[in-house]
Write a structure and sequence with these properties.
mainly beta
Length: 71
């Protein structure tokens, strides 16, 4: 399990998830901010992307101004 707490992800770029890519694991996100992350014109998930395997839990977090062509 990956724990993300009180973190800020801003102005990141990635084809799959501008800030976080999850594949086959558990991610627990709490009290964090995702702002202005991008998956680009042909990417998936502006702030985060989860493949079929894995789990993502987001609590008490803010996601604003993120961009992904496919969500």
């Amino acid at each position: 399990t990956c724990h993300v707490m009180t973190s800020t992800f801003e102005d990141n770029i990635g084809t799959y998830g501008g800030a976080i890519f999850v594949d086959g694991c558990k991610v627990d996100i709490k009290e964090s901010v995702f702002n202005k992350n991008s998956a680009g014109e042909s990417g998936y998930g502006g702030a985060l992307y989860k493949k079929k395997r894995g789990e993502v839990y987001v609590n008490d977090s803010l996601m604003t101004n993120n961009f992904g062509a496919f969500i």
